[in-house]
From TrEMBL:
<dbReference type="InterPro" id="IPR027417">
    <property type="entry name" value="P-loop_NTPase"/>
</dbReference>
<protein>
    <recommendedName>
        <fullName>DEAD/DEAH box helicase domain-containing protein</fullName>
    </recommendedName>
</protein>
Length: 148
């Protein structure tokens, strides 16, 4: 899906380093003592926010895999993060967690026109021409920050 929509010129975005991202994570979770779950979690988020094009992160269960896609959605200059998940996950606790953190989100459906900081797309929908049109519109408007 990414290759089919990744066309156009992107506006430069401010890079983030580890320290400011940790402060933002503490703010988001309202925990002034919060630390990175692992060095890998920190590296994944910093790489993402340094605007590296392709990142692969392998984290253990409970290793904080959600932070690298949720935290950027809460930053002041946040664009749209498109999160591709198996349909089963949509029924899980993902929506509960993003609601608790007050992250602007929506589940993409074929007639969707709205935007949110986090757009959750089922893996089954990624082959739909309308989801690709939606993503292309975000790219054209320079609003799509990442596809996870």
């Amino acid at each position: 899906m990414t290759k089919r929509i990744a066309k156009g010129v992107y506006k430069p975005r401010r890079p983030w380093s580890s320290g400011p991202l940790l402060q933002e994570m503490r703010r988001l979770y309202q925990d002034p003592d919060m630390q990175w779950e692992s060095k890998e979690q920190e590296q994944a988020l910093v790489a993402m926010m340094m605007w590296q094009e392709q990142i692969t992160a392998v984290l253990r269960t409970g290793g904080g895999k959600s932070v690298p896609f949720m935290l950027p959605c809460t930053l002041s200059e946040a664009g749209v993060t498109s999160l591709v998940v198996p349909l089963v996950v949509l029924r899980g606790d993902l929506f509960r967690r993003v609601r608790e953190l007050r992250i602007s989100h929506l589940e993409w459906v074929p007639e969707e026109r709205r935007d949110a900081s986090l757009v959750i797309v089922s893996v089954e929908a990624t082959s739909e021409p309308r989801v690709q049109e939606y993503a292309r519109r975000l790219v054209d408007d320079q609003r799509l920050d990442r596809v996870v």
